[in-house]
Amino acid sequence: MIGLDTSHVSIFAKLLHRDEAEPSSRLFGATVGYAYPGGSSRMELSYSRVDRYRNELVSQYGVQMLDSIEAVAEASDAIMIESVDGSTHLEQFRIVAPYGKPVFIDKPFTTSLEDAYEILALAERNKVTIMSSSSLRYAEALTNAVQLEELGEIIGADVRGPMPFVQGQADYFWYGVHSVEMLFAIMGQGCRKVHTICSGDHEVIIGCWSDGRIGTVRGRRQGGGFGAVIHRHRGSDYVDIQTGSKPYYESLLEQVIDFFRTGHSPVSLKETLEIIGFLEAANRSRETGIASSL
């Protein structure tokens, strides 16, 4: 693990080191062996949390702390870039790419399309497989709802979720990425234009797809839960993300461990790029008040 400044490292370590894991579990046999604490001086929410999570991983799970990103890349079979400041991911990936290990980059993949393309170029040059995703993409209630076909093909979606902003991270890249990942899990690729409307504590992002479909994200700056309405030809379904029997972090981690073992990412890099482009366009539209093309 690289970057111990997010609750994700605590959650993932607990899931991978739990005593009750069965040999039949998709997580069985995977553990966190090494970590580099990191931390971003740009974000108080980063540097203020490193000591807490570093101490937890050492005392509770026996994770060995190393003094450089290079040392972690050398010692590990696979790498998780967890740093909460997405603007640091390119430089961290630049360091680990030459080691040729599979890499999971936690949300957000990057905070700019330019950085995203550079990571892809580095991955191709070094023949490195990469994956990035929000845990909300794999929320059990959402994946089950998307697979239902009784009401016909999906013609649109309305997603809701918390959307706080923090200093040091570009607006929607901080928490909006979760709801946007949900939207793309439902709608797939093909968004061409984004229009953002904001009023008080409320944010609405409207995406227009090339086939005429419309998908929206409604965010509340003060928090709240995640949910979605999936529109189909013969009706609409509401999805309450909290109703799944399995925690969505566990569902994501299963996908990540499968990726480490197979080298195949369940999320296409093309879709990851489009999500970053969507967030970037949404931020532009928020600033200008007019629609922005991806």
UniProtKB/TrEMBL annotation:
| The Gfo/Idh/MocA-like oxidoreductase N-terminal domain, residue ranges | 56-131
Alphabetic keyword roster? Oxidoreductase
List the Gene Ontology MF annotations in alphabetical order.
Answer: nucleotide binding; oxidoreductase activity
UniProt cross-references to SUPFAM superfamilies, sorted A to Z: NAD(P)-binding Rossmann-fold domains
The answer to whether keyword Oxidoreductase applies is yes
**InterPro entries associated with the record:** Gfo/Idh/MocA-like_OxRdtase_N, Gfo/Idh/MocA_oxidoreduct, NAD(P)-bd_dom_sf
Entries under Pfam families matching the protein: GFO_IDH_MocA
Keyword Acyltransferase in the entry? The reply is no
Q: Which domain of life is it from?
A: Bacteria
Family to which this protein belongs: Belongs to the Gfo/Idh/MocA family.
The protein depicted here goes by the name Gfo/Idh/MocA family oxidoreductase
